[in-house]
Design a protein that fits this description.
The chain is about 45% helix and about 15% strand. By secondary structure, the chain is α/β, with parallel strands linked by helices. The strands form six sheets. Strands 11, 12, 13, 14, 15, 16 and 17 form a seven-stranded mixed β-sheet that branches. Strands 3-2-6-7-1-8 form a six-stranded parallel β-sheet, sandwiched between helices. Strands 23-22-21-20-24 form a five-stranded antiparallel β-sheet, with no helix packed on it. Bound molecules: adenosine-5'-triphosphate and magnesium ion.
Length: about 725
C-alpha cells in the first residue's frame, strides 16, 4: 500500500490507529509531521472519510499548504476541502460564518498589534489610566494573557486577584472588548476567544462542528494554550477521534501562554488515549543529534526520550568563535561561500538567531559578501506605514464601523482636517447614532462644519464607498489600485522627502499580492484578502525561491529542516537571554529553544558566538553560552575550555575546522574599548597569585565576564572563593 510505504512500524501503527484519542509523543525529526500527513491520506483513501470532515491544525499556514501538496501527491482529490490551517485561520473562517451570533458582522476587521495599541491607548485615556504608571504594552499583555486562558472581563478580578492593578486591568479589558465590538473588530486572541464564546453560547453551532469533524489532528501540540485546548475539546469530544503530535522538549511559546500541560496531561484529558513514541530520527547525523540530546538532558521538567539515527556520525558540530558580532556575520558568509564553491546551494543554509535585532549585522555581512538571502520576519511587510495606510481604506470599505481604520485613512494623506472638525464629526455621529464614516457621507447636512470641510469629508466617504463598489464589480486588484490612486495617497506620497520611490515600490508589491491572491483563491473578496493579510505569520513568508540563504528567529524555524544550520549569537545574556538567567523555568524554555535550533540541522551545525557584541549602543564583552559547554566535547570540533576568558590573550585569528578542512579566518583585532579600563594595565590568568587589599593573598581560579566587565574568581586562604571585578587600586599580582 502506497500510503504506508515510507513509514516505519511505529509510524504505520500511528497511521492505522484511526479511532479514539492518540498522542504521538516524539523528539525532533522523528517523522511526526510526516505521520500526520500520511494519516490524513489514509483516512481519506482507506477509511473513506470525506475531506470536509477532517480538521487539521498546523503551526503555520505555509505548513498547511505543504501538507495539502503532499496529500495531493498521493493522487488524492479534493484536498482543498480539508479544513487545514492554523488555529487562527480556521477559527477566523468559522467566525465569519456565524459572526452575527456573537454580535459581529461577517466583515469584521482583524486588528494587528499597532491597531490594538491605538485602541488600548484610547481606552486608557477614557479611563484616566496613567501610561507612566502602567504602560499600554503591559495592559495589552495582561489582557492577551487573560484571553489565552479563556478568562473573560467579568471573571478577571476573580481569576487574577494577585495583580496590584487588577481592578484597572479588569476595567480596561472590559472597555477594550466593548470598543472592539463597536468597531466590529477582533484582535488576534479574539479569533480564539470569540470562537470559544460562539461554541459555548450556542450549543447547536458547537454540535454542528462536533458532528462534522470526524477527525481532528493537531501538529505541534506542545505549543497550544489553554484556550486552544478548550476549543479543541469542544469539537473533538463528539467523535473522540483526536490525534495530537508533539514534543514536550520543543515547547517554546510559554511566553505566549502555551501550556505544556496540554501535552503532558493528554492521557488524563482524553481517557483511553493511546500513546505512540517514535524513536528514530531521520533528519540529522548522530553528532548533531547526540549534541542536541545532551543539551536538552539538562532540563529537569521533561518526559525524557531517546532518539537515534541511522544516518551515521557525520561532521562534528562546529564551534565558531568570533571576536566581534560583525566578524560573526563575515565568518558565516565566508563559510557559506566556501561551501557553495564546493557544490552546496545557497538554499541549503539557514542562519538562526534568538532575537530579531540580531539579523541586521548578519544581513550586512551577507550583503557585503554578495550572498543572496531572505529574511523571514512575519508580518513586517504588512506593517509598513504605506501598506497599513492603504489597508485602512480597504478595511473601512468592508467594515464602515472600524473606527481605528477610519482615523488612519482620513488623515492619509493629510486633508487639512483638524481636531475641532474631528470633534464636530464625532458629536454628530454620536447624536445620530451612526459611524463617523457615515457622518462623513452626510457631511453636507452637518451645520457646524464649514463648506470646504463638508466637501472634503463627503469626498472621503465617496472614495471609501467606491472602493467597495470597485471590489464588487471589478475585483480585488482593481479595488486596491483604486484605493492607492484615487484617494490621492500616491500623489501625496511622491512629494514626501523620505524614500518615496521605495514606498511606491512597496505599494506596487501590494498590488501584485492582491493580484496573486485574486488569481489563486476561491474566495477573492476584499474581506478574504484582508483576513489573509492579517493572518500571515513567520514562516508563511518564506517565498519559494530556492536560491537564498534563510535568516530567521529560532521561533520561526519550528518544524523546518536545513542541510546546514548556523545558530548565531550563542552568548550568555543573549542566548539564554539575561532575563532567563534567574528563573529556572525560563532557562529551561531557552534550552528547549536551543534544542529546536540544533535539531533543524541535517548535516552541518555551527554554534557561533562573538566575544564582543554591540547592543543597545554599547560594545560589551560576552561569554559563550552555557549551552555550548553542555555539548560534550566528543561531538564538537572544539576542545578549548570555553568558559574562561583571559584578558589580553585573544588572538587576532580564530581557528576552527569545517567540512572543507581546517581553515583560518582573519579576524579583526579586539577593539580597545573592550579592555577593562579600571584594570587595563594588568591581566590575570587562572593560577596567578594575587594580593587583594581586603582579603590578602589568593590564587586566581577563573577569569570570566560579567556584564562586560572582567570578573575574577579567586581563592583566598581562610576565606574561600570570592568573585570580584578587579580594580587596580585593590588587587595586584603578587
Ligand atoms: P519536528 O519535531 O522538527 O517537527 P518531525 O517529528 O515532525 O520533526 P518530520 O519533519 O515529519 O519530523 O520528519 C523529519 C524528516 O525525516 C523529514 O525530512 C521526513 O521526510 C523524514 N522522515 C520521516 N519519517 C521517515 C521515514 N520513515 N523514512 C524516511 N524519511 C522519513
Ligand atoms: Mg514536525
Amino acid at each position: 500500500m502506497d500510503i504506508l510505504s515510507g513509514l516505519n512500524d511505529m509510524q504505520q501503527e500511528a497511521v492505522k490507529t484511526v479511532s479514539g484519542p492518540l498522542l504521538i509523543l516524539a523528539g525532533a525529526g522523528s517523522g511526526k509531521t510526516r505521520t500526520v500527513i500520511h494519516r490524513i491520506a489514509y483516512l481519506m483513501t482507506e477509511c473513506g472519510v470525506a475531506p470536509w470532515r477532517i480538521l487539521a491544525l498546523t503551526f503555520t499556514n505555509k505548513a498547511a499548504g505543504e501538507m495539502r501538496e503532499r496529500i495531493d501527491s498521493f493522487g488524492i482529490e479534493n484536498t482543498n476541502e480539508i479544513w487545514m490551517g492554523t488555529f487562527h485561520s480556521i477559527f477566523a473562517r468559522i467566525l465569519r460564518r456565524h459572526a452575527e451570533y456573537i454580535g459581529f458582522t461577517s466583515d469584521y476587521s482583524i486588528y494587528d498589534e499597532t491597531d490594538k495599541k491605538n485602541l488600548i491607548k484610547e481606552v486608557m485615556a477614557s479611563l484616566s489610566m496613567n501610561e507612566k504608571v502602567i504602560s499600554p504594552d503591559t495592559v495589552m499583555n495582561l489582557i492577551s494573557d487573560a484571553k489565552n486562558n479563556a478568562v473573560f472581563p467579568s471573571d478577571y478580578e476573580k481569576e487574577y486577584g494577585f495583580y496590584t492593578f487588577k481592578r484597572d486591568i479588569a476595567k480596561a479589558y472590559d472597555v477594550y472588548q466593548k470598543k472592539l465590538a463597536e468597531n466590529n473588530a477582533m484582535d488576534f486572541d479574539d479569533l480564539l476567544l470569540n470562537a470559544y464564546r460562539l461554541f459555548t453560547e450556542n450549543p447547536s453551532i458547537a454540535d454542528s462542528y462536533r458532528d462534522r469533524f470526524l477527525h481532528v489532528l493537531i501538529d505541534e501540540y506542545q505549543d497550544t494554550n489553554r484556550l486552544q485546548y478548550e476549543i479543541v475539546s469542544i469539537i473533538a469530544k463528539g467523535h473522540n477521534n483526536i490525534c495530537v503530535v508533539g514534543d514536550d522538549d520543543q515547547s517554546i511559546y510559554g511566553w505566549r501562554g502555551a501550556d505544556i500541560r496540554n501535552i503532558l496531561g493528554f492521557e488524563e484529558d482524553f481517557p483511553d488515549a493511546k500513546v505512540i513514541r517514535l524513536e528514530q530520527n531521520y533528519r540529522s547525523t548522530s553528532n548533531i543529534l547526540d549534541a542536541a540530546n545532551a543539551v536538552i538532558s539538562n532540563n529537569k521538567n521533561r518526559k525524557g526520550k531517546e532518539l537515534w539515527t541511522a544516518l551515521g556520525s557525520g561532521e562534528k558540530v562546529h564551534i565558531l568563535r568570533n571576536n566581534r558580532d560583525t566578524d560573526e556575520g563575515d565568518n558565516i558568509a565566508s563559510i557559506i561561500k566556501e561551501l557553495v564553491s564546493k557544490g552546496a546551494r545557497y538554499a541549503d543554509f539557514a542562519v538562526l538567531y534568538r532575537i530579531n535585532s540580531q539579523s541586521r549585522v548578519l544581513e550586512e555581512s551577507l550583503l557585503r559578501a554578495s550572498v543572496p538571502y531572505q529574511i523571514v520576519r512575519g508580518t513586517r511587510f504588512y506593517e509598513r506605514q504605506e501598506i497599513k495606510d492603504i489597508m485602512a481604506y480597504l478595511k473601512l470599505a468592508v467594515n464602515p464601523k472600524d473606527e481605528i481604520a477610519f482615523e488612519r485613512a482620513l488623515v492619509s494623506p493629510r486633508r487639512g482636517i483638524g481636531p475641532s472638525t474631528m470633534e464636530k464629526l464625532a458629536d454628530y455621529a454620536a447624536f445620530k447614532g451612526i459611524s463617523r464614516l457615515e457622518a462623513c457621507s452626510r457631511a453636507m447636512s452637518v451645520p457646524t462644519l464649514s463648506g470646504s470641510v463638508q466637501a472634503k469629508l463627503s469626498e472621503f466617504a465617496h472614495i471609501v464607498e467606491s472602493i467597495a463598489v470597485t471590489a464588487a464589480s471589478e475585483g480585488l486588484e482593481a479595488a486596491v489600485k483604486y484605493a492607492i490612486n484615487e484617494s490621492g495617497y500616491k500623489e501625496a506620497l511622491m512629494k514626501r522627502p523620505d524614500d518615496p520611490e521605495g514606498r511606491v515600490r512597496n505599494l506596487e508589491e501590494f498590488v501584485s499580492a492582491a493580484a496573486d491572491f485574486e488569481a489563486s483563491s476561491e474566495d477573492s473578496s476584499l474581506s478574504a484578502f484582508l483576513e489573509n493579510a492579517a493572518l500571515i505569520a513567520g514562516a508563511d513568508t518564506i517565498s519559494d525561491n530556492d536560491g537564498q540563504v534563510l535568516l530567521m528567529s529560532i521561533h520561526n524555524s519550528k518544524g523546518l529542516e536545513f542541510n546546514t544550520v548556523f545558530v548565531a549569537g550563542m552568548e550568555e545574556g543573549l542566548f539564554p537571554l539575561s532575563r532567563a538567567l534567574e528563573e529556572e523555568s525560563e532557562l529551561e524554555e531557552e534550552r528547549r529553544l536551543c534544542y529546536v535550533a540544533m535539531t533543524r540541522a541535517e548535516r552541518r551545525l555551527y554554534l557561533s558566538y562573538a566575544e564582543t557584541r554591540r547592543q543597545y549602543g554599547a560594545t560589551r564583552a560576552s561569554e559563550p553560552s552555557r549551552f555550548i559547554s553542555e555539548v560534550p566535547e566528543e561531538y564538537t570540533d572544539d576542545a578549548r575550555p570555553l568558559r574562561t576568558w583571559r584578558p589580553g590573550s585573544s588572538g587576532s585569528r580564530a581557528q576552527f575546522t569545517s567540512s572543507f578542512g581546517t581553515a583560518n579566518y582573519k579576524m579583526a583585532a579586539r577593539p580597545d574599548e573592550k579592555k577593562n579600563t579600571s584594570c587595563s594595565e594588568q591581566t590575570f590568568s587562572p593560577g596567578d597569585k594575587i594580593i587583594h587589599s581586603a582579603w590578602g593573598a589568593g590564587t586566581v581560579v577563573e577569569v570570566g565576564i560579567l556584564n562586560g566587565d572582567v570578573l575574577i574568581t579567586a581563592a583566598f586562604a581562610g576565606l574561600g572563593i570570592k568573585k570580584f571585578i578587579p580594580d587596580a587600586s585593590r588587587v595586584k599580582k603578587a
